[in-house]
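Subject: MBL fold metallo-hydrolase structure
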Amino acid sequence: MGISFTVLSSGSTGNATVIRNEDTTLMIDAGLSAKRIEELLQERDLSGADLDGILVTHEHSDHIKGLGAMARKYNLPVYANEKTWAAMAKSIGAIEEMNRMMLETGATMELGSLQVESFGISHDAAEPVGYNFYDGPEKLSVATDLGYVSDKVKQAISKADVLVLEANHDVEMLRMGRYPWNIKRRILSDIGHLSNEMAGAILSELLDGNTKRTYLAHLSRDHNMMELAKLTVRGAMEDRGCFYKDSEFRLCDTYYDRPTPWDKVSEP
């Protein structure tokens, strides 16, 4: 079967992604209400009862809003590093001790036949992480909420068959937008969010024939649009000498209000 996934929701209003293989189904983050998460799961023929656990990237509300409710309702293990557990404790409520699972940054864990690896990222949270998923030769990488992409992150997500990567904002739209300057400065900082241009710059370094698709994720509803994001990302790649055909590599959409279709990592 290999790895399949669907991005249930992506953006500042809430984030959740489901990854599964033949024997394991995991969710990354639960940043919407439990009711809304269950509705999105149903759109992909799943329910909370199908989940084997929830992985947490960091403690911001758009990543943990429904975490406590989902974990309690379905008796789910929750995986996070120690600092994230401490930072989100008051927000998520009581979690059974047997379901409080530690996955330290940089560690690898076998969950069923899925291998899960966490890696540190730069964001204004206690100890934020991205995740790699392996099943045999297949690799799926998920990296959002990035102020910038360090050499260690580049190494972690390199050679992914499929990549979910942040393209949060268009810089000029953000600068001209309605947000107060202190929030704009935070978003633009090294502990904020990745712009379209920076996402393209990173992809131009990573694209080596292995990565077949990249899903542009965590788009701002106020300061970005999917078509603009794809145009800017592709332009930034071409400016750096990285040209490709759609048959070789594709940029794919994510949505804040509906899930992406199921995607099999092994598909060309």
